[in-house]
Amino acid sequence: MSYLQRIEEVNRYDLSHFRTWWVDGTRVGWVKPAFAAALAGHGAVFEVSEAGVRLHPALADPRARSAAVAEVVADLHQRGVIRHWYDELYPVNTGFSKPALLLLERAAVPLFGARAYGVHVNGIVRRDDGWWMWVARRSRSKPNFPGMLDNFVAGGQPAGLDLLDNVIKECGEEAGVPPALAGLAQPVGELRYCVETEQGLKPDTIFAFDLELPPDFEPHANDGEVESFELLPLAEVADLVANTRQFKPNCNLVVIDFLLRHGFIAADDPQRLALQQALHPTLPV
Fold first, then answer.
1. In the sheet that 19-23 helps form, which strands lie side by side, from edge to edge?
2. Handedness of CA 214, 216, 222, 227 (dihedral sign)
3. Do 56 and 127 share a domain, yes or no?
4. Which residues contact 285 (CB under 8 A, 6 or more apart)?
5. Are residues 121 and 35 in the same domain?
6. Banded model confidence at residue 110, pLDDT cuts 50, 70, 90
7. Does 283 reside within a domain?
8. What per-residue confidence (pLDDT) applies to 87?
9. What is the mean pLDDT of residues 71-88?
10. What is the pTM of this model?
């Protein structure tokens, strides 16, 4: 079994590859030198040096910062520096309950190495023959991890929406779950990871939810994000996580956490403590 290996795969980074990003005296991210060079062409917004990148101090409040950075990000997208675009704003802060120092287009968040948040939902069915889990297969047209397995429902956490409302929204969009049923999802904790990618740094937090579904419920994809759904015995899902790389990497964490919480990884398993600790590392921001 290699649950720990799955966790380690999304916790690999070297901060010496990055420069710090500061807003109003607070370090909020990490940028690669090539992206710092792209920001240097916007001196009215970013002060770039070998020591790091600072948002211009004249941008003194969240609204002004958001507007100024939005112009830069739009320009970089037009020039192909930022390849994707979601038209969705994420808060830039140092903790989920902390006020946003500015709002940033989702596609730019990894390039700035800012902490991002998301919700992931375990879709569970209890039957006479044991526990089963709904698994989604990502659309093959998605820009990231196309065609890979995914948690039942998952999505980024945009600004201005609370966690459960986001779960309800994502459940409806991705799996056709009625709001009344989706609203029964139970928050079960947060998982953290930090991984270096070609674009930048992802110090992310996942808010995990369990949703028990009726045995006769059949999800259906609504928004093109998901290609299909499959209901699998929990033991098969556990085997896929431990012994393959078929799941989108951060989704493995959500399944491992579920197995720990519900006793499917035994209390006397020699890796249990290491797994619990590895799911909650200290993030760089």
1. 26-31, 19-23, 52-55, 46-48
2. positive
3. no
4. 27, 28, 29, 30, 94, 113, 114, 115, 203
5. no
6. very high
7. no
8. 95
9. 96
10. 0.96
Q: Is 284 a domain residue?
A: no
Kindly state whether residues 139 and 269 are assigned to the same domain.
yes
Task: Read off the CATH number of the domain in which 255 is found.
Answer: 3.90.79.10
Do residue 267 and residue 249 come from a single domain? yes
Q: What is the DSSP string of the chain?
A: --HHHHHHTTS---GGG-EEEEETTEEEEEE-HHHHHHHTT-TTTEEE-SSEEEE-TT--SHHHHHHHHHHHHHHHHHTTSS------EEEE-SSTTSPPSEEEEGGGHHHHT--EEEEEEEEEEEETTEEEEEEEEE-TT-SSSTT-EE-SEEEE--TT--HHHHHHHHHHHHH---HHHHTTPEEEEEEEEEEE-SS-EEEEEEEEEEEE--TT------SSSEEEEEEEEHHHHHHHHHH---B-HHHHHHHHHHHHHTTSS-TT-TTHHHHHHHTSPPP--
Residue-range definition of the domain harbouring residue 197: 3-11+116-278
- What percentage of the chain exceeds 90 in pLDDT? 95
Q: What are the φ/ψ torsions at residue 270 (nearest 5 degrees)?
A: -65, -20
Is 285 among the domain residues?
no
- Of 98, 73, 92, 93, residue with least CA distance to 83: 73
pLDDT in tens, 24-76: 999 999 999 999 999 999 999 999 999 899 999 999 999 999 999 999 999 99
Does residue 155 lie within any of the structural domains? yes
Residues belonging to the chain: 285
With a cut of 70, say whether residue 185 has pLDDT above it: yes
Residues 252 and 217 grouped into a single domain = yes
